[in-house]
Amino acid sequence: MSRIVTAKGLSKSYGSFDALKSVDFTVDRGRIVGLIGPNGAGKTTALKAILGLTTFQGHLDVFGFDPRKERHKLMQKVCFIADVAVLPRWLKVSQALDFVEGVHPMFDRHKAERFLGKTKISMRSRVGQLSKGMVTQLHLALVLAIDVELLVLDEPTLGLDILYRKEFYHELLSEFYDENRSIIVTTHQVEEVENLLTDLMFIKDGEFILNSTMDEVSERFVEVMVSQEVAEQAKQYNPIAERDVFGRKVFLFDGIDAEVAQNLGEIHRPSVADLFVAKMKGAQA
Amino acid sequence: MNITTFKTLVLRETWENKSLTLAPLVISAVMIFSLIVGLISGQMFISGEGLDDVIKMEMPDVEGFEGKKIALVIQAMMGGPLLIGMLFVLFFYSLGSLYNDRQDRSILFWKSMPVSDLQTVMSKVFTAMVVAPLITALVALATQLLSLILFTPVIWMNGGSAWSILWAESSLLTVMFNDIAIALMVGLWMAPVLGWLWFVSAIAKRSAFLIAVFAPLGIMLVEGMILRSAHFAKLIGQHFSQIEYIVQGTIESGHPFTLMQSSGFWIGLVVAAMFIGLAVYIRRFRDDSY
Prior knowledge:
The complex is a heterodimer.
Chain A: E1 3-14, E2 17-28, E3 32-36, H1 43-50, E4 57-62, H2 71-74, E5 78-82, H3 93-103, H4 109-117, H5 132-144, E6 150-154, H6 162-176, E7 182-186, H7 190-193, E8 199-204, E9 207-213, H8 214-220, E10 221-226, H9 231-235, E11 241-245, E12 248-254, H10 258-264, E13 266-268, H11 272-284
Helix pairs in contact in A: 4-5, 5-6
Chain B: H1 3-16, H2 19-46, H3 51-58, H4 67-97, H5 100-103, H6 107-110, H7 117-157, H8 162-167, H9 172-189, H10 191-203, H11 208-226, H12 231-241, H13 243-252, H14 263-285
Helix pairs in contact in B: 1-7, 2-4, 2-7, 4-7, 4-9, 4-10, 7-9, 7-14, 10-11, 10-14
């Protein structure tokens, strides 16, 4: 498994505000990394650094390129969708295809036309005439037809209705992803991506507070539902979060012994959303 | 620089900026329409009189007034408004070219493609300095041809020989050459202004137009108040007055390249290059584009 992104001591400040505080992380080929954090935590700054859209301090290597210096070469291997609906309103669908075909050596026009054939988008339409969902479909059709090795998605489904959101991730998995390609995705809608991810990174105030594979996460974090009587006993194992469900307590443990957990009550795999909330609160305390 | 990429980038500019082709066509249509109206009412005025008499009556002091002049006058009349139109189109084109895509955030799409910011900016410079003048020149030439064609039956009706009065002396090749040369030279003459507009276009967060217009006015005002002088205004005025070289050169020497004899022209190009360089740098490294 090869490294495609290596960051060491990556920092970025805007005036006195530190958006990234000397973080280290890596992304390997074939991984789908979820970068999750509240607004202003540094997600977008990290993505911008990887894409060469911002200056930064520290070391960052993406496919052997320094994104600050060799951005346009890097973009042959990396593509990104930043938010939805950034295609300009005046652009015709046919022109969008012509443009990407003209500037991107890895673009497969037939593939893009095949995607578009499955939608109601007409070649003659302008982006301004399409619904937000259709613009996303068009953008996805363009990007998925480019044979890049890393796809970066920043809140790709923001503002879309549920049908398009589901379809978006479905297409992404079935048409783009394979063991040679990687995806980095940030989103607020954690539930939608948690089954896709192979790696999870939580970021808060410019620092990574969790950075591990999903396998490690499910080994390390356990949710146990216990009756009120054993709640006090469970608290001795230092749960990182607790909540009430139908008169019972649910505790989230970080690194509890499996046998101990089983003796306390029912074991569940915590959802990424619950884990996220717990970690964010924990980091605050 | 990859040719296919660059061609695509320039095409993109023409897709977005329809006015590059639309404006000269509209101006041309208006001129042709006015010409037709003028010819019809002129024909009513001429009525019984012979055309030669009318011409001599209008311009009595021109001895042996030949058709060559008629053709050139027609050509100049048809070319002038198109060039003025081009200046306006280029002004708004340049001012919007690095600004509009930041306003609608489509810069994020353009930047997701393997195109360097130098290529992007150069495609806009090329569009303004080469493509727009060529389009203007082509439309000018077509308009001039069409107006000669429109004059032809009028001359016939008045018993003149359209061939000897108009066509034999119209020197179409020279006109074609001059249409292209003048349009290109006007573009180069405007280069420092365009450079300034690109710079503003790249740096302005909002109200690019106000900054582009009022920043120079502000400099003049401050200079006037503090130093009690007007060097900056004079500098700009001097540059604009160089358009004379183009007009005079074309009339006296038959080509507009006399502008190149002016040092101000070359200084203007250096200033333009400086602004364009800054625009590329800002486009590349400014953070709030995302």
